[in-house]
Amino acid sequence: MSQYNAIASVPTSTTASSQDVNPDNPPLILLAEDNETNIQTFSSYLTAINYRIILARNGLEAIAQAKANLPDIILMDIQMPTMDGLEPTRQIRLDPNLISTPIVALTALAMEGDRDRCLAAGMNGYISKPLKLKQLARQIAELLVT
After folding, report:
1. Beta bridge partners of 73
2. Which partner for 16 in 65, 78, 138, 145 could form a disulfide, CB atoms 3.0-4.6 Å apart?
3. Which residues lie across from 107 on neighbouring strands?
4. In angstroms, rounded to a whole number, what is the distance separating the alpha carbons of residues 58 and 8?
5. Are 18 and 141 in contact (CB under 8 A)?
6. Which of 145, 111, 80 shows the shortest CA–CA distance to 89?
7. CA-CA distance, 71 to 104, in Å (whole number)?
8. In which residue ranges of the chain is pLDDT below 70?
9. From CA 145, how far away is CA 130, in angstroms rounded?
10. What pLDDT sits at residue 21?
């Protein structure tokens, strides 16, 4: 288990849910994703279940957005232009204001060892694409209460 409190598996039900989100102060999610279809799908779904979204389309933008906005959680695509999702994760973990911010890998990489590389870089969770939106919501809720 990594020093970043990784979640080994997401339970099918958890005590946390999108219904637990405070409507007056919904959690802020940094979505680092370059695929327009994924951006629209994830943003629409997460906004509908009462999360606020900020967007980064590459690794450099992810670092800048994380430092400027201090999100409650970061969803990090691994395969992005300019810089893959692992390097921004490492850099974000160096910032004392972001060291405990949960980071979840969203990746089409499903090869053996990819999950371990993501967790070793400082990510707390790993979801392979294509993903189920309810699975994503469960993982977000679980990480926000830990």
Report:
1. 29
2. 145
3. 128
4. 26
5. yes
6. 80
7. 13
8. 1-23, 109, 146
9. 25
10. 57
Q: CA angle 140-141-144, nearest 5°? A: 85
C-alpha 53/C-alpha 32 separation (Å) is 10
DSSP secondary structure letter of residue 72: S
Tabulate helix, strand, coil % of the chain (nearest 5). 40, 15, 45
Is residue 94 packed enough to be buried (19+ CB in 10 Å), middle (13-18) or exposed (0-12)?
exposed
Residues in the chain: 146
Q: What is the DSSP letter of 27?
A: P
- Answer yes or no: are the C-beta atoms of 78 and 107 closer than 8 Å: yes
Beta strand segments in the chain, E: 28-32, 52-56, 73-77, 103-107, 125-128
**3-class secondary-structure state, position 77:** strand
The interaxial angle of helices 86-93 and 114-121, nearest 10 deg, is 30
What fold does the segment set 26-131 form as a domain? Rossmann fold (3.40.50)
Is the Cβ–Cβ distance between 48 and 77 less than 8 Å? no
Domain residue limits, the chain: 26-131
Cβ-Cβ contacts under 8 Å for 113 (sequence gap 6 or more):
none
Q: Is the peptide bond before 102 cis (omega within 30 degrees of 0)?
A: no
